[in-house]
DNA sequence: AACTCGGGGGA
DNA sequence: TCCCCAGAGTT
C-alpha cells in the first residue's frame, strides 16, 4: 500500500532537505531548550488542538509552578486546573496528572521509553506517544498530527478523507518508511514546523518550501485542494439563564461542576437551561434545581460561548438569595468578589465577572 | 465509526 | 462566518 504512494520519493534526499531546513529555521520555543521527557510531555499535551502561540505562556507558568514530574504528581488538582484555566480541553490536565502520578507510583518517576508502556498512560494517545519517543528518546516512531497529514497528503498526493481513523493509520505507516533513523526528532518536528510555517492550510508558501521538488500536489498545481477533510457537524445551541447571586453577606454563589463531562471540576455561577425566555419560569426552575429561594433583579447582558460541539447562549441576571434550603445535588460555595479568581472557571464565566 | 471535549485566531 | 489548531477518551 505505502509503496504505491512512496515510489516517487527519494527518501534520503527528502529527509535531508527537510532536516536541513528545520535546523536552519526552527523557532526558539521554551520546550526546545533541552530534552527533558517531562517537559516534552507537558508541551505535547498542551499543544493538542492548540496553537503554539497560545501554549507558550501556559507552558512557562506551568514549569514555574511544577518544575518536575514529581511536583505535578503531588499538586492539588484544583491548582492544576487553575493553571490550565483558559487553555481548554480540561481533561488533558486531569489525565496528565493521573498519568504522572502513575509514573511516580509504578515507574520510579521516570517517563517510560517503551512504546507500549508509554501509550498505556492516561492522555497519551498515538500522536503524543510518538512525539515523546522521537523528541525525548530519539526513537524513529511516527507522530502524526494535523500538520503531518496536511504536509504528507500534499507531498504524496493522498486524496482520502483524513478524518477517518483508517487513513490516519496509513499516514503512520508512511512515516515509518520516511522517517530518518539518524535524527527522528528533527524529522518529526521538521514536518510539523513545515506545516505550521510554510505548508499552511490556506495559501501555502510553496515558493519557500524546502521539499517542493518532492511534492506531487505542487507538481500538479493542486496543493490548495489537499488534504480532503469531511466537514464537521454544526454545533447545537443551548440557551441558559445565568445568575450573579449575592447573599446577605455580600458574597457570590458559585458551584463546582460534576467531576465528569464538560468542564469537569471547574466552577461556575449557577445557571439553568431556558427553553422559554420567561424569567418567572426560570426562577421556579432554578429554585427547584438549587434549593435556594432568590429574587431576580436587573438583566446585566448576554454572552455567547462557542465550544467544538455546542454553543452556550447566556442571559445574565443579577439576583439576591432570600433563603437557602438544601443543596443535595449541587456543590455550592459562597465567595467574596476578590476570592472568585482563585477558583478555576471556564472563560465564559470569567467573562461574566465583568458584570459584577 | 461517531460522539464528546475548549478556546482562540486567521482569512 | 468558517476553518483550523503538535488529539484522546468514550460509547
Automatic annotation (TrEMBL):
Cofactor(s) this protein requires: [4Fe-4S] cluster
Keyword Cytoplasm assigned: no
Enzyme class: hydrolase
Single GO molecular function: hydrolase activity, acting on glycosyl bonds
Keywords: 4Fe-4S, DNA damage, DNA repair, Glycosidase, Hydrolase, Iron, Iron-sulfur, Metal-binding
Catalysed reaction equations from the record: Hydrolyzes free adenine bases from 7,8-dihydro-8-oxoguanine:adenine mismatched double-stranded DNA, leaving an apurinic site
SMART domains: ENDO3c
SUPFAM superfamilies on file: DNA-glycosylase, Nudix
Record-linked Pfam families: HhH-GPD, NUDIX_4
InterPro entries tied to this protein: A/G_AdeGlyc_MutY, DNA_glycosylase, HhH-GPD_domain, HhH_base_excis_C, MIG/MutY, MutY_C, NUDIX_hydrolase-like_dom_sf
Enzyme Commission number(s) from the entry: 3.2.2.31
Span of domain HhH-GPD: 46-197
Entry's cofactor comment: Binds 1 [4Fe-4S] cluster.
PANTHER family: ADENINE DNA GLYCOSYLASE
Family according to the record: Belongs to the Nth/MutY family.
General function of this protein: Adenine glycosylase active on G-A mispairs.
Protein name as annotated: Adenine DNA glycosylase
Species per Swiss-Prot/TrEMBL record: Virgibacillus alimentarius
Lineage: Bacteria, Bacillati, Bacillota, Bacilli, Bacillales
